[in-house]
Amino acid sequence: MSLADLSIAEAGEGLRARTFSSVELLSAHLERIAARDSALQAFVTLTEDRARAEAERADDELARGEDRGPLHGIPYALKDLIDTAGIRTTGGSKLHLERVPQRDADVAGSLADGGAVLLGKLMTYEFALVGPSTDLPFPAARNPFNRDHITGGSSSGSAAAVAGGLVRTAIGSDTGGSIRSPSAYSGCVGLKPGYERVPRRGVIPLSESLDCIGPLSASVKDAALTFDAIATPSDFDSAAAEIGRDIAGLRIGYARDWFIDDPALQPDMGVAMDAAASDLSILGARIEEIALPDYEAMEAAGAIILHAEALAYHLDDMRSRSADYGRQGFNSLAAGVAVTGDDVERAHRLGRKWRSEIDALFARYDAILTVTTLATAPAFSAFDGESPVWTPMRTLPFNLTGHPVLALPMGFANGLPMGLQLIGRHGGEARLCRIGAAYEAGTDHSAQKPVFAD
Length: 454
Description:
- Hydrolyzes indole-3-acetamide (IAM) into indole-3-acetic acid (IAA).
- With 454 residues, the protein is α/β, with parallel strands linked by helices.
- The protein contains 13 helices and eleven strands.
- Strand 10 (405-413) and strand 11 form a beta hairpin.
């Protein structure tokens, strides 16, 4: 087995026992990237020289007994919306091809402070909008389980890198599902933290009211360790400390009505969701079907806010540099022109109402279970590269309400991953990781990996 396949915890144990060095761990990841990334197209910028210097420093510090935490000496990568001092941050757009920030985003700074080793920057749909597109500077990332299919967006490179075994953990952003849908389509774990649990400063915004920053990782524990490293210090429990705890007696509300009668639902998905609810019950959780607020109304309200805020951020560049936007991205932004201030105010008001209604459910339940996407990842042939294609998801409402969500693999259909999501109360990321880790350990869905020639 390659060192690149070790979990974060396993790699950390090896580094501290001096079984291998951070430089050797990095080399294994670089070899894996060299072997696979030409097929996956996950990386936009590879920071090999910086990574070697950081790995050497990590080895020196650990040898001196200076331990910065669980990610000390561990390779990771960043979505190319996240600023990195001295390293270009393009946002996946021609507008920013030469943009080199002077300082790290807060999330990048937290990982650097924790001794993590930056491998590079990962593919994103242009400014986290829509895709895949054919008129952008970088080719779209490809699904490790079938390279003819997409990874989902907009954290497309993050999902491809993690699911493809290039790195154990990566950082993405989620405004309407951009951590969770790529995780579901690509068979990895995605954690969308609660709103403002992870600082957003230095991340190119899409919608300030909805944006969240979080990890896409190879396992729940990897995600929990990464979240603990990047979250704003608080009185909430450590997510990693909850891993391994029993879930017997925890109450989970199953929002089956949110998807089961939707004509867009792939039949395998409904069967897998019912099986997941059964698996959680076998593990000791108490499952009850519940009703959530109307999905379509919540999605529409969230879309209004997203379009209005995205347009406001990009309007000056759209006027002065319209030709530098990809066609899909520009048209998506232009849709915000039809949104009025009254529309936005009403959408926020409804969002607060739905947040209160879901909060009330958490007086009874420890988590809510529902599907992440209604179908597996579509093929690239379903897209023309210029016109957006709707892919049915169940994600945007929890950006609107601000609740944390953990996305998990729950099986395969026709060789492609399927995913569920667990929603928690505000500040409840640790409880979600506890439940998710128990489900992961009690099933074999996360153990199945894509096949590569190397």
